[in-house]
Amino acid sequence: MREKVVIGHESSGKPVEFDVAELLATRLLVQGNSGSGKSHLLRRLLEESAKMVQQVVIDPEGDFTSLAEPFGHVVVDGAAYSPPEIEALARRIREHRASVVLALEGLEVEQQIRCAAQFLGALFDAPREHWFPALVVVDEAQMFAPSVAGEIAEDTRRMTLSAMTNLMCRGRKRGLAGIVATQRLAKLAKNVAAEASNFLMGRTFLDIDMVRAADLLGMERRQAERIRELERGHFLALGPAITRVPVAVKIGPVQSGHKARAEGLMALPETAPEDMASLLTDGLAEVAAKAAPPPPAPPPAPPVEDVSESIARAEQAQVASSDGGDPALAAEPNETVARIEAIIGELANDDTVVAQSSSAQYQSFLTRCRRERLIGPMPDMASFRRKFAEAGAGLDELDEDTRAQILSLASTVDDDLLGPFYVIARAAHAGEVLVDEEALARAYGTSSPGRIRRLLGHLERQGLIVVREEFGGGRTVMVPGLDTIGAG
User: Is the backbone of residue 324 left (phi > 0), alpha (psi -120 to 50) or beta?
Assistant: First the structure.
């Protein structure tokens, strides 16, 4: 799967690429004064990576709602829902892996901050089985992670700082990659900005912001004047997902968004002063006397269930349209199930995939299914983990009775211990009593002998295995209740 996107070009014409997989692990900070092109940059990055990763955008000004039509993002109006509903929506967004724009322009500033904080908190607190990779873009981040309290209530500031700190400091383990954009680095909380490893610095004029930007880019302070001289749409880039040395990049064009307004000066209408005065003042008293008709009542907010269905449909449409797939060309149901089993088996024997976290393994599985245009019910996270562990241990090579017996014994085993337990059970069935620590380490995702010892001790305390330590330092393992072929 393609992992890099082009965000722009250097002055020489050389393309500047963004490694999206690396970005998921290292986060991004974008800084620039109003009019420097921050929103254009974010839109370019979102458009280019829309088919590669789930995206969640916190949009206080309604700048990114136009992503909905061309790229399938679901627009959620934050003003239409109560706090519990916003949190429920965030959990469903993680579950269904939908790309979403949370539009907050209909709220007052403090309400925007509280709504975004509760939304981010619910994304962060989603169940472990829903920790799928996602880019979380926060525009105008100085609002949501202020360096000082300002005019907002102290409890609101604590809430939003906690949510933003969790996103940038601890979100990586939960699959959340924070992208924060700000006009003023000096107004952004330092513990939020410090967690980003990638930087795109646009034009800024205040000395304090230039100094902080130069420090983050590793430039000498006398070189900070270079930041003041950047043109609109030009940024200095640095970070493991972009480049190891600072480079100047001009951001490429975008497909969505409002059409550019006419720039520069515009001639005034050729109207005589007395005619203009008449246009402004004639009948003014009569107009003011007429009561303005009340604005139409806003439509009622759709139920949360309807939005959930919309999210699910968007995910299904993304699966169907990925790689230009046609549902009519999808495999028959029985063939689909067989191919899904085969894909899980192939991934379970790929050392690169085995070394990944469970959520990353599941993401790799879904990506393979999309690439092969497999449309239909997919195993959920828990089912996938069990099937992956079975395939990795080679249980499909055993006869049905033996396989059923091992699966029955494993019914109470925790999901993260299934792989090593299956390895032990299969070896015990074959009459092998010596521990194959290399196979256990591969199934458990570790190379630490200490973790292997603790793993065996844990399984023994649960009554699943019996471990006997020998004077020579060796260990033999048996599985109670499992028939064996014979001593090996």
Answer: left
